[in-house]
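Batch manifest, entry 17 of 40.
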Amino acid sequence: MNTVLQILNNIFIVIQVALAFFVLLPTVLLIIYGIKKLFGWSNSPLRKGTVVENPKQYSFGAIVCAHTDLTLVPPLVDSLLKQAYREFRVYVVADNCTKEAVDNLRAQFNDPKVTILAPDVPFNNKTKSIDLGIDQFTVKHDAFIIFDSDNLVHPQYLYVVNQYFNKGYKVVQTNMLPKNTDTLYARMDASGNHYCNFIDRQMRMELGLSSHIWGLGIVMDVELYKTILYQNFPGTFSKLGGFDKKMQADIVNNVDVLAYATEAIVYDEKIEDGAALQKQRTRWINAYFTSMQYAVKVLWNGLSRFNFNNTFFGINLFRPPLFMMMGAAGLFMIANLFISLPWAIFWAAAIFTFVITFFSIVVVMSKDAAIFKAMFHLPFFVLRQVKAFLKVTDANKDFLRTNNTKVVYIEEILNK
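Output type: structure tokens
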């Protein structure tokens, strides 16, 4: 009996140590960031001062994945056509869209740089939309970029991406910033966006490690993509959600470093209200649990090759969503009031440290007073995520698509 209790106690401690790593890592990264900033150290490829002789003008294929609705596509295509860098083509994949909407889009963009593709049989699958875009390239492109229909891109976007490719990177995740912050929920959503950009992308790049990807704004060498053994997702992933989880695992196991280009900006629409947030997070939480196999794959690949980059990447893929992570920390604190007072004090200090760190990171990254003020309403944001967690199995029955409605052109964003 004592042996069983000792084993259970050891497991309890191991779980706490693992959770403590995730809770305290952001603070460590923020301290490293502060030290590097203080001494002017930076690992950004564009700040190192090295000059690439005879830089190549890479050709990019921008694939816009639109599903059922083309309302927001014109502003995105417009922002792409206004790029300072000109070696590109745009491929809009209008999946499951009406013929009238497709014809109107073709009439609006009668430009040789723009190709509108409409599959006869709906895909309802983002991976298939990407593959169709690649198959229908009108010129030979070196790399392709994935966009969602609600995105916008900065005029210097492709110019910056080309510089990264000239530095030797074959996969580059670009910097996703909020397109809209006009509602409380949009600002709270943006705060999480800034936090994740910092810990999962910017600081990874500063440490010479691979960045996590978003499902958009990812730029990838075409030939590299074709060499990756890539199959369409079964079950849940056969729909539009979660495709980036497998893509991420495949990429990180096949490149030295998955780069993050903080200077290449893509704008993404943030959630406007609580109901939309709950629907979106239900899908995301479901994807977290159903993609554990990819976390195992990356971690094992790192351990078996003694590759710290992949090992660290794989460990962080197990990190639960923030509300679950902090909820678990709170439960451990309460439980340890009856088990181990030192551990209870540790968890109280860790939770306090995390909250201060979260606020500090968002302030550093956003520099927006409205977003800072919105963070004091985060308990409402967390409550919506708890509700989403309780309905997580709904994502197995329905894609739970969130509707984006902000028809905004790039000039409006830049003028702000």
